[in-house]
C-alpha cells in the first residue's frame, strides 16, 4: 500500500536526508552560528529550489540572515521543498512550471526586497540587478554560463558590485560540474526515458567539465560515446580519454542520443535534426535551454505528443525526434539535480563566500573575484574529514627542496 504524505512531510523528510548527506554545511554553520555572523544581512537567492538549496538556505538563516528565494529555472522548482521552506519562514517566490513572465517577475520581486547580497545561478538575476542599477554590497555566481556572462559585462565595465565567482573554485567545478552533473544528467535521462544505455551511440556535445563527467558515466554504463567540440585542446583530450571525436553533422548518421553541455547557443540546429535518424533522443545538460534549437521543433506543426512527463515526440517528415525536458537542464527537470554530497562542496563555497563578502565588502572593488584560496582549502579539508580521509603533510626537508 502507498503511504500518503503531505507536501510538507515529504519536504521535511527529503530536507533531513539532504542535510544528513551534507555534513560540511552543518560543520560550517555550527562554527559561525553563535556569532550570528550574517545578522543584519538580507540575501536575495536565485538557485534551483531543491532539498540541497533548502539546506543552504536553512544554514544561512541560522547564521542570522534574512532570505528571499526565487528559482534559477521555471521547471526545476520542487514543490515539497517550497512548502518546507515556507514553513521555516524562508519565503520562496516561484513554483514549478511557472510561466516565463512569472519566472522573471519573481526575480524582480526578490530584488524589490532590497537584499544586501545577491546569489545567482546563471547570471539572469545579476543582469536584472545591474540593469536596475541596484545598490548591493556584493554577490556570488554559481555556474559556468553565469561566469561567461559576467566576464563579458566586466569587459564593458558594467559590473556594479563585487561578485565572487563560486564556479571557478576547484572545489566547485572539478566535482559539481564533472561528477555531480555527470551522474545526475544520466539519472534524468534514465528516469525520463527508462532506455538501456549499453550499446547506444551517444553524442556528447562539449567536452568541458560537464561533458567529461557525462562521457565518463556513459562509458561506465556501456554506451559508445562520441564527442563534438570546437576547442582543439578539449577535442584532443576527449580523444586521448578514449572517445571518438567528430563534427556534429557526421554523427547524425548514427547517433541514438545527444546530450548538449556547451553553454553555447543553437548547437543542435535544423540542419542537424533534418539529417538525424528516426527515433533520435535529444537532451541538454547546459544551464540554458538554448543549446537545442527548440524554436525549430516548436515552430512548425510537427504534431508533438507528450509520451510521459518530460518526454515529447515530434513527427517530422515521418521521422520521430524525441526531446527531453523541453531542452532544459535534464538533471534538474528530469531528476532531482546534483547529489547532496556534491552540492555540499558547491554550497560550502557559497556559504563561506557569503560570509567573506559580509566581512570584506568595504575593501572590494566592483569586479569579479575568485573564491579566496583559504575558502577552497577549508572546503576541501572539511570534505576529506567528512569522508574520514587523512593525507600526508609536507616534511621540512620537502618544503626546503620545494622553495630552494
Ligand atoms: N546541469 C547542471 O547541473 C550544471 C552544472 C554545472 C554546469 N552546468 C552548465 O553546463 C554548461 C557547461 O559547463 P562546463 O562547466 O562544462 O563548461 P566548460 O566551459 O568547461 O565546457 C564547455 C565546453 O563546450 C565546448 N563547446 C562550446 N561550443 C561548442 C559547440 N558549438 N560544439 C561543441 N562544443 C562546444 C567548449 O569548447 C568547452 O570545451 C554551462 O552552461 C554550465 O553553466 C550545468
A few lines on this structure:
The chain has 404 residues and is of the alpha/beta class.
Task: Describe this protein's structure.
- The protein is an alpha/beta fold and 404 residues long.
- The protein folds into 2 domains: 7-168 and 339-386, Rossmann fold; 180-333, NAD(P)-binding Rossmann-like Domain (Rossmann fold).
- It has 17 helices and 15 strands.
- Strands 9-8-7-10-11-14-13-12 form an 8-stranded mixed β-sheet, with helices on one face. Strands 3-2-1-4-5-6-15 form a 7-stranded parallel β-sheet, with helices on both faces.
- The radius of gyration is 22 Å and the shape is globular.
- The N and C termini lie far apart (70 Å).
- It binds nicotinamide-adenine-dinucleotide.
- Nicotinamide-adenine-dinucleotide (NAD) binds next to helix 7, helix 8 and helix 9.
Q: What are the defining features of this structure?
A:
404 residues; alpha/beta; Rossmann fold; 2 domains; 8-stranded mixed beta sheet; 46% helix; binds nicotinamide-adenine-dinucleotide
Amino acid at each position: 500500500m502507498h503511504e500518503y504524505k503531505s507536501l510538507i512531510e515529504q519536504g521535511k523528510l527529503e530536507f533531513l536526508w539532504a542535510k544528513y548527506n551534507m555534513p560540511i554545511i552543518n560543520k560550517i554553520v555550527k562554527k559561525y552560528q553563535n556569532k550570528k555572523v550574517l545578522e543584519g544581512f538580507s540575501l536575495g537567492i536565485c538557485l534551483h529550489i531543491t532539498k540541497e538549496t533548502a539546506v543552504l538556505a536553512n544554514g544561512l538563516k541560522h547564521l542570522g540572515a534574512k532570505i528571499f528565494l526565487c528559482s534559477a529555472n521555471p521547471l526545476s522548482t520542487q514543490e515539497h521543498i517550497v512548502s518546507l521552506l515556507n514553513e521555516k519562514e524562508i519565503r520562496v517566490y516561484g513554483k514549478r512550471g511557472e510561466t516565463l513572465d512569472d519566472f522573471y517577475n519573481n526575480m524582480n520581486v526578490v530584488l524589490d526586497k532590497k537584499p544586501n547580497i545577491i546569489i545567482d545561478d546563471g547570471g539572469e538575476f545579476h543582469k536584472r540587478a545591474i540593469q536596475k542599477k541596484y545598490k548591493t554590497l556584493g554577490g556570488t555566481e554559481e555556474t559556468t554560463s553565469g561566469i561567461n556572462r559576467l566576464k563579458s559585462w566586466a569587459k564593458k565595465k558594467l559590473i556594479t558590485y563585487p561578485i565572487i565567482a563560486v564556479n571557478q573554485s576547484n572545489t566547485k567545478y572539478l566535482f559539481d560540474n564533472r561528477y555531480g552533473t555527470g551522474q545526475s544528467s544520466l539519472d534524468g535521462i534514465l528516469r525520463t526515458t527508462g532506455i538501456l544505455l549499453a550499446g547506444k551511440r551517444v553524442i556528447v556535445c562539449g567536452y568541458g567539465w560537464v561533458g567529461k563527467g557525462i562521457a565518463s558515466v556513459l562509458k561506465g554504463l556501456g554506451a559508445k560515446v562520441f564527442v563534438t567540440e570546437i576547442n582543439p585542446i578539449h577535442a584532443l583530450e576527449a580523444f586521448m580519454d578514449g572517445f571518438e571525436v567528430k563534427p556534429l553533422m557526421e554523427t547524425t548518421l548514427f547517433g541514438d542520443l545527444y546530450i548538449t553541455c556547451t553553454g553555447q547557443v543553437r548547437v543542435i540546429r535544423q540542419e542537424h535534426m533534418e539529417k538525424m535518424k528516426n527515433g533520435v533522443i535529444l537532451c541538454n545538460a547546459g544551464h540554458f535551454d538554448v543549446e537545442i534549437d527548440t524554436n525549430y521543433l516548436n515552430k512548425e506543426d510537427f504534431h508533438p505528443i507528450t509520451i510521459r512527463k518530460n518526454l515529447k515526440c515530434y513527427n517530422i517528415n515521418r521521422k520521430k525526434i524525441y526531446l527531453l525536458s523541453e531542452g532544459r537542464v535534464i538533471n534538474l527537470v528530469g531528476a532531482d539535480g546534483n547529489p547532496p554530497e556534491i552540492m555540499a562542496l558547491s554550497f560550502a563555497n557559497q556559504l563561506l563566500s557569503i560570509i567573506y563578502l559580509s566581512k570584506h565588502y568595504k575593501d572590494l572593488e566592483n569586479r569579479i573575484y575568485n573564491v579566496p584560496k583559504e575558502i577552497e582549502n577549508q572546503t576541501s579539508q572539511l570534505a576529506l574529514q567528512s569522508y574520514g580521509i587523512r593525507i600526508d603533510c609536507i616534511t621540512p626537508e620537502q618544503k626546503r627542496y620545494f622553495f630552494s
